[in-house]
Amino acid sequence: MSSAYNSIAAISTDEAQAFYEEFLRALKSGDITSLERAYADDYLLVRPNGDTFGKKEILADLRHHSMRFTSFEVNDVLIRTKGSVGILTAAVRSTAVRDGVEIKTHARQLAILSKENERITISHFQSMLSHHKPNSFNCVHGSSPSRLSAT
Q1: Fewer Cβ atoms within 10 A, N terminus or C terminus of the chain?
Q2: Residue 79: helix, strand or coil by DSSP?
């Protein structure tokens, strides 16, 4: 093994869980500064409709639109780690108000985390829609009926 590999610290499941909880707190509270630190420079968000956004795009969108969560429920969290990488999935149900419009979501989330120099960041976040009620929007972390209308 190379010395570069040995210098990268492994991520634990507890670290991945704590990071995800902090990430959700920042997202729910609209803490853009914390989200900016949490997102890796090469961060990629993939929405349920397949649209993709990088770090700069999603941060600009979050700054431009007002959003607050009125409910947020996380279940079925599964975390796997491989060296410095953490892979997390969770079932999420949430209700948010974005620019005055209520958005209800039920999705399976996938987050890929990495640890480098004792810092954990999220490099990939993807949502897949789960069963949902008719007449509800299905939007997850940066999504809405239109490409940049909601986060």
Answers
A1: N
A2: strand
* pTM of the predicted model as reported, rounded to 2 decimal places: 0.78
Instruction: Establish how many alpha carbons lie within 13 A of residue 17's alpha carbon, considering only the half-sphere containing its beta carbon.
Output: 10
* CA distance readout (Å), 27 to 1, 6, 9, 131: 38, 33, 26, 23
Tokens for 52, please give them.
């993709």
Q: List the one residue out of 75, 56, 72, 73 whose CA is nearest residue 64.
A: 56
> In a 3-state reduction of DSSP, which class is residue 84?
coil
**What is the pLDDT confidence band of residue 147, given thresholds at 50, 70 and 90?**
very low
CATH number for the domain formed by residue range(s) 3-129: 3.10.450.50
Q: Where are the domains of the chain?
A: 3-129
CA atoms within 13 A on the CB side of 104: 7
Q: Kindly give, in sequence order, each residue whose CB lies less than 8 Å from that of residue 76, ignoring residues fewer than 6 positions away.
A: 89, 90, 91
Which residue did the predictor score with more confidence, 68 or 23? Answer: 23
pLDDT (mean) for 7-16: 89
Longest distance between any two alpha carbons in the chain, whole Å: 55
Q: Which single residue is written with the structure tokens 């039920």?
A: 106
